[in-house]
Automatic annotation (TrEMBL):
UniProt family annotation: Belongs to the quinolinate synthase family. Type 2 subfamily.
Binding site for iminosuccinate: H63, S81, Y152, V153, N154, S169, H237, P238, E239, T254
Full protein name: Quinolinate synthase
Principal localisation: cytoplasm
Single biological process term from Gene Ontology: 'de novo' NAD+ biosynthetic process from L-aspartate
Function: Catalyzes the condensation of iminoaspartate with dihydroxyacetone phosphate to form quinolinate.
Entries under PANTHER family matching the protein: QUINOLINATE SYNTHASE, CHLOROPLASTIC, QUINOLINATE SYNTHETASE A
Binding site for [4Fe-4S] cluster: C126, C211, C297
EC number from the UniProt entry: 2.5.1.72
InterPro entries on file: NadA (IPR003473), NadA_sf (IPR036094), Quinolinate_synth_type2 (IPR023066)
Molecular function terms, GO-annotated: 4 iron, 4 sulfur cluster binding; metal ion binding; quinolinate synthetase A activity
GO cellular component: cytosol
Length: 340
């Protein structure tokens, strides 16, 4: 099981009897997701983050791909991209720390602009967000006049500003169909687009973007998995290639997968997605055996307890949005939330 840090025991962050006492109630809540052996490494940072959250009137929003220490010990809200956007709107705290990637922090700032939004590592990017620019979208609009542009939230503010409406993996089919047209551009993830196309009669045009984590999965891997584990239930994220989704028993967003496991209680499951997902939910689903067949997202893995702590201490790195783009980008996200 992964927690993405080798935590350094400095004088400042040592597991003293005082730290143990102050964090005992937290440990009771997070055990067995966090083991007794791990706790002395995490507790000094958890202790300081909880103190700083109070001092700064801050909350931590964490994506389902964050590691167990973040997901269970310091986050106030966890979820998929859609849930994080929906919940970001209602945050009343002054400061929001995004334990996730940069586009998620930007979306949070768009939806709750009066708050200070921090990202512990501004280099936490996304291969999908990097695959397309605002100019690319303007060119697509010229090439396909009148075709609505549905943009995955995994994009920059500039790209959102050029789009008609956003979507996430949790609502893409619904958003596409909500437009009431025969043809849409669904960008930039070509695999998400192909998987949506398989579920709708709307013609889907797309872009050549890919998620570097999900594009690596193959149908052969699923076949081998089933050979080795004949009773396994396979869940695949819709950013996977269509042949992987076809070979799976269910496909849905990270929240969709979590709900599937907690509701259907499969005896054995493989989550064809980022590795932290299974780690995060394993303890809540003790009757399910999680078969590890996953890839790590190097961007999500940039966030750790140490830099969350540092972020709250120094109030860095503040995420801002170009005011010239903010209103148009917000409209695209807001339309998605209204249609969800
Ligand atoms: P969801 O949480 O919306 O399924 O997205 C997965 C993802 O890749 C986020 O970076
Ligand atoms: Fe981007 Fe894929 Fe990482 Fe999600 S998992 S942040 S889509 S690279």
């Amino acid at each position: 099981m992964s927690a993405n840090i080798a935590l350094a025991e400095t004088e400042e962050y040592t597991y003293t009897p005082e730290v143990a006492k102050r964090t005992a109630a937290v440990f009771d809540q997070v055990y067995p997701a966090i083991s007794k052996e791990e706790w002395p490494d995490f507790a000094p940072y958890v202790d300081e983050i909880l103190r700083l959250k109070k001092e700064r009137n801050a909350v931590v929003l964490a994506h389902n791909y964050q590691t167990r220490d973040i997901y269970h010990c310091v986050s106030d809200i966890v979820g998929d991209s859609l849930a994080l956007a929906q919940k970001a709107v209602d945050v009343e705290a002054d400061v929001i720390v995004m334990a996730g990637v940069h586009f998620m922090a930007e979306t949070t700032k768009l939806l709750n602009p009066s708050k200070t939004v921090l990202i512990p590592d501004p280099k936490a990017g996304c291969s999908l967000a990097d695959s397309i620019t605002g100019e690319d979208v303007r060119n697509l609009r010229k090439k396909y006049p009148g075709v609505p542009i549905v943009t995955y939230v995994n994009t920059s503010v500039e790209v959102k500003a050029e789009s008609d409406i956003c979507c996430t993996s949790g609502n893409a089919v619904k958003i596409v169909e909500s437009l009431g047209v025969d043809r849409v551009l669904l960008i930039p993830d070509r695999f998400l687009a192909a998987n949506v196309a398989a579920e709708t009669n709307v013609e889907i045009l797309t872009w050549q973007g890919e998620c570097e984590v999900h594009e690596r999965f193959t149908a052969r891997q699923v076949t081998q998995l089933r050979k080795a584990h004949p009773n396994v239930t396979v869940l695949a994220h819709p950013e996977c290639p269509p042949e992987v989704v076809e070979a799976a028993d269910y496909s849905g967003s990270t929240a969709g997968m979590i709900n599937f496991v907690s509701e259907q209680k499969p005896a054995e499951v493989a989550l064809i997605t980022e590795c932290s997902m299974g780690d995060n939910i394993a303890s809540e689903n003790p009757d399910t055996n999680f078969i590890r067949s996953c890839n790590l997202c190097p961007h999500m893995q940039r966030i750790n307890l140490m830099n969350i702590c540092e972020s709250l201490k120094t109030m860095t790195h503040e995420v801002t949005v170009d005011p010239a783009l903010a209103d148009r980008a917000r409209l695209a996200v807001q339309r998605m939330l209204d249609a969800s």
